[in-house]
Design goal:
2 copies of one chain form a homodimer. Chain A is an all-alpha fold. Chain A has helices spanning about 15-30, 35-45, 50-55, 60-75, 85-105, 105-110, 120-140, 155-175, 185-200. Chain A is built from 9 helices and no strands. Chain B binds a DNA duplex through helix 3.
Chain lengths: ~210, ~210
DNA sequence: GCAAAATCTGTACAGTGTAAAGATTAGATG
DNA sequence: CATCTAATCTTTACACTGTACAGATTTTGC
């Protein structure tokens, strides 16, 4: 059956999955700029042209990894415990978003590099859309509406505001644009100090 | 003297500038992913290895273009007429920021792709820093402080909030993440409708 | 058991960035 | 003006890249 680890056989057994994992490992170890299709093939002990059959092109493989990225991102912004307020929940989700970006910068950058991904992949679009759902629900809560209701224009704009802020913060952090503002800034400082302070400016916690 | 257009001579005359302009033109025509060092050399009618002497590497040339980008960005966020309020001024600057990103996507994306730029270039850092000055001044105005004063922590955080929001918006727009939210969304719609609406959520205009 | 389909290899090609060595020109010095 | 030196550009070359194409190998369906 060759279902077990048959890496030296002519047929790999589960090359598709192995290539995705190899790519993800490369992203983690050497970042997005360290990825090459041939490198991923080497890591899976397979010829340079092998990936083509499963993914068509480099973009096909990367799209698969980006899908996993959006799913992982969704997990990071789903809040576990019940938050005290809607704004508190928003902040928890924001922290999850940034935590994901800082923990998996290669994945995160890939997910927004349309030039590396298949432009019209339905599964990628769906995964991206699914990752927004938790933010959408919190937005509705902020407006005092039922969480599973459809977003009207005001809610859409509000969600866009939250998303832009957090995404911009994450992107600037990964671009190294904060090394000047806070020379010693490491991930912990960004997550524990700077991000909450910024969010408090934009979504102040209501006095009680 | 060969100061005049001597493109067919052995010595170009002003190859350094010609390569920068060629690169900028490629970014405008084919985007950042359309740039190659050899392509820029071809456009300047020069051999593939010629750029190396002036810029050392591809990153050196791109860094030069990124510096021009930050200078152009600074021009876009300097407000011309006097704004009615500090928040109104912030919104004008935000619009300038996004207008720049949408008008010159190749340049804009390059400016934040640290993997393509020289990591420790002093002039690039200075240009990037200079582009923040107008936002810093508006931040001070928002807090009712003298505009040329040093930013304390609160002001820094506030500026970071504004910057993150606008940068995230621009980045998401260029990533094509708004095509779902607003299928027909073109630059005009983003600039005239969506962006002002989002900013109004975060920085509501004070009642008068 | 055997044909057909799926999977992977080997080879090849055009294109990339850039290192190294040589050709050409410009500018400074006498 | 002549000549030397330094700057500038070309040529060649190399190790890569993504991927197209033809063929080898294995699995699968009948």
């Amino acid at each position: 059956m060759a279902v077990e680890t048959a890496r030296d056989a002519y047929h790999h057994g589960d090359l598709r999955d192995a290539l995705v994992k190899a790519t993800d490992a490369i992203l983690a170890e050497r970042g997005l700029e360290g990825f090459t299709l041939r490198g991923a093939a080497r890591r899976a002990h397979v010829s340079p042209a092998a990936p083509a059959h499963h993914f068509g092109s480099s973009a096909g493989l990367l799209t698969e990894v980006a899908i996993l990225g959006f799913e992982e991102l969704a997990r990071h912004i789903e809040i576990e415990g019940s938050a005290e307020s809607a704004t508190a929940r928003l902040k928890q989700q924001a922290a999850g978003y940034v935590r994901f970006a800082l923990a998996y910068p290669g994945r995160f950058q890939l997910m927004f590099r349309y030039d590396l991904l298949l432009p019209d992949d339905a599964r990628l679009a769906a995964a991206s859309e699914l990752a927004k759902v938790p933010i959408a629900r919190t937005t509705q809560a902020l407006l005092g509406r039922p969480e599973d209701a459809e977003l009207d224009e005001k809610a859409s704009v509000m969600m866009l505001a939250a998303w832009s802020t957090v995404h911009g913060f994450a992107h600037l952090a990964l671009s190294g644009k904060f090394s000047k503002l806070t020379p010693e800034a490491k991930s912990q400082h960004l997550l524990d100090e700077l991000l909450p302070a910024m969010l408090e400016v934009l979504w102040p916690e209501p006095k009680r």
